[in-house]
Amino acid sequence: MRGGANLLDVNMDADLLDSEEAMVRFLNLIATEPEIARLPIMVDSSKWTVLEAGLKCLQGKGVCNSISLKGGEEPFLEQARLVREYGAAVVVMAFDETGQADTVERKVDICTRAYRLLVDKVGFPPEDIIFDPNILPIATGIEEHAAYAKAFIEATRIIKQQCPGVHVSGGVSNLSFSFRGNDRVREAIHSAFLYHAIRGGLDMGIVNAGQLVVYEDIPRDLLEMVEDIIFDRRPDATERLVDFAKSISGAGSKREVDLSWREGSVEERLKHAVLHGEVAYIEEDAEEARVKYGKPLLVIEGPLMDGMKVVGDLFGAGKMFLPQVVKSARAMKKAVAYLEPFMAAAREARMAAGGAAETASKGKIVLATVKGDVHDIGKNIVGVVLACNNYEVHDLGVMVPAEKILDTAIELGADVVGLSGLITPSLDEMVVVAKEMTRRDFRIPLLIGGATTSKQHTAVRIAPAYDGTTVHVLDASRVIGVVSDLLDGGRRHKFEQDNAALQEKLRAQHKSSRRPLLTLPEARAKRLRLPFEQLPKPPFTGRKVIEPDLATLRAYVDWTFFFHAWELKGKYPAILDSPSQGAAARELFEHSQELLDEIQKNGWLKARGVYGFWPAHAEGDDIALDNGVRFPMLRQQVDHGDDKPYLSLVDFVAQQGDHIGAFAVTAGIGVDELAARYSADHDDYRAIMVKALADRLAEAFAEYLHEEVRRSWYESGPKLPNDELIAERYRGIRPAFGYPACPDHSEKQTLFNLLDARSIGMELTESGAMTPTAAVSGLYFAHPQSRYFMVGKIGRDQVEDYARRKGMTAAEAERWLRPNLAYDE
User: Fold this and answer.
1) From the CB of residue 69, how many other CB atoms can be counted at a distance below 10 Å?
2) Which pLDDT score, from 0 to 100, does residue 583 have?
3) Got the DSSP string for 18-86?
4) Which string of DSSP letters, residue by residue, matches 590-604?
5) Most buried pick, 62, 240, 518, 612, via CB within 10 A?
């Protein structure tokens, strides 16, 4: 805004986020801020339901980003008419039924076709049409990519001639993707491309305006090489620029190691090592300090904690990021591990003489992932952050029953208990722990965290079950403030008062926010009715096992969510150039690539999956396979207040002659052993990183396999680039059980039995969590209009019907569907 933006792009597409609700809430929020509200808003999403939800909220004239001919003319016209009714301009991507346009001819053909449809059939004013003819990466080393920049400029010129009045936009930063990390080359590419593209008719570009150089200021030798790749002027253009780039960036040359910090005192060296995560000399310096101070505990309480205090202050001020904190913790842990035997010997001698044990801890904290759940990356990060701030952390691991958590808390005299979980059944298990804490007369604070948890759920379901204080902690960056307030005698009372008041307010909001429901028969009567004239047949029926190598999967990784796991919020690759987070992100990315190279070279992780296709048909709200297997599905019941259909996944399956696909994949075979090896070496940085990498590889596996499935089943044309795959700009969906369209985790049992997933080393916990944890599973739907959606709240009538179809009691069904219940049991 204050940096000079002309248009505000709002995108709420993220996993585990109710995108429609987030879009509406955010747009309504910024509409109350005059400084922001004066800007036109671009509603941006790959999902039509999110776009429409946003368009309904816009004041004045907005922009809808985006629609395309990917699904054919009828959906395109339907969406365009709605955009027109909402009074917005529209971004049209150069996609059609066969895929993304990459040549001049395809870009022009698709855009002129869309222009005629929009102007002649919808009545769109040409000035409200913004074409995006796809700026694609150049200088990748792949021959067919070499002409992409030239094709965009030429296509823009023709489009502006043949479609008078329209605008042309493009994502300029995509162009230089091959040179990420080399800012000077990227800036030169962007500036030179914009110079020529604007002359060709480009009206707007998505680019960091603060990182553009003046065209005339680009050095002549660099400019020549940049324009060689932009205009594909010579076959060795890419090689020449790559070689030249090494001479103007430290990224490609050997870095000088600065050891000037080794010249300081031992205190300064230890402080520096902790602050920067340096471990090469940590034991040597710890030994020198131990001899100097006489007592190892004084080394920990002195120079090591001095370093950690600076880390804590910088982290709290937002000047240091989580990966850097975890690296600091690694240095601290290695130093403490070296000093521990000396401390143990001194402790034993002191206690033998009748003395007391020494401790430097601010408090004891017991952490655990609850019974039935196996996910622990977030919990491990929280543990590291707490340990960095001088709390004594006892991490009990995963799948921990309530009795063990509380017995350990009593045995240790814990000051705080922290519970973590990812899957929705974990929410119930947290309530079990809270009730047990009340029964056993606990009064210490209970902390709640994890991806499916929320302040509202904690207030409504967990806090009332415990007589003590229950606090929801959003992420690792907040935990220190919460724990320090709770364990400080002067601040605790006010913190607990404020927390209780907030939770009471959230409970009241929950009661007043319930929306009316349709009855189940009414919702079924308003189901989505799709045409099923042409039903593609899959290449085979039955199951197949697949074992791709990690190098194959690496090309499909969505790195954005790798950074999110480390609480670095931003989109890859733009985050690498972020003014605030860029340095931390680049270092983290470099380390992740080094570790991934090592993992590939040594074969430390294995990927294995199973998938298949089966004849199936819709039968009521069940997907019935011809072999007798059934997947009962849920249907939306919340009253939309309009004539939109009430969706169920079964609507995407024909009542006869159709097929359904299924899959289960993991890239985590070996991950627990590898992480444990790093943990044993006091290297939490790599232990956490290897789990985060395995998670990304598993998601990449799912994306790779879905592409293989689509192309063998119904998809033709060129393969989509990775950014288009990430944006789900393809036909078909792969919903996972436990997610919004099919929220019941128990259906994974049926899925695993169908696929015989246990034969490839995958298992399920009693709550439906998959092991290894780096795993993805779900169903494949082929219908061109299939899409993701959220079932939302459902009524008692549907729960009882669903329980009957599944052959379980209503109480059992309620346990699996509790977050979706629109009533109190």
Assistant:
1) 21
2) 85
3) -HHHHHHHHHHHHTT-HHHHTS-EEEE-SSHHHHHHHHTT--SS-EEEEE-STT-HHHHHHHHHHHHHT
4) HHHHHHHHHHHHHT-
5) 62
- Compute the average pLDDT of residues 212-240: 84
The answer to whether the Cα torsion of 387, 390, 391, 392 is positive or negative is: positive
Active-site hit among 232, 373, 622, 683: 373
CA distance 775 to 541: 23
Annotation says 373 is catalytic: yes
Asked if 672 is an active-site residue, the reply is: no
Identify the residue with better confidence: 5 or 529: 529
pTM above threshold 0.70: no
CA 696 to chain centre: 9
Helix extents (H) in 513-629: 520-525, 550-554, 560-565, 582-602
Q: What gap in Å lies between CA 84 and CA 91, rounded to an integer?
A: 12
Run of H or E including 8: strand 8-11
The pLDDT assigned to 724 comes to: 85
User: Is residue 394 within 8 Å of residue 368, measured between CB atoms?
Assistant: no
Measure Cα distances from 758 to 574, 602, 734 in Å. Answer: 39, 25, 20
Name the helix (H) or strand (E) containing 607.
strand 606-619
Please give the angle made by the CA atoms of 711, 736 and 756, to the nearest 5 degrees: 80
Q: Quick check: 520 pLDDT over 70?
A: yes
pLDDT reported for residue 90? 96
Q: How far apart are CA 294 and CA 291, in angstroms?
A: 5
Q: How far is CA 422 from the centre of its chain?
A: 13
Taking alpha carbons only, the member of 767, 16, 808 closest to residue 373 is 767
Specify the pLDDT at position 749: 97
Q: Which of 167, 190, 272, 375 is catalytic?
A: 375
The predicted model gives 499-524 an average pLDDT of: 90
Q: Compute φ and ψ for 64, nearest 5 degrees.
A: -100, 120
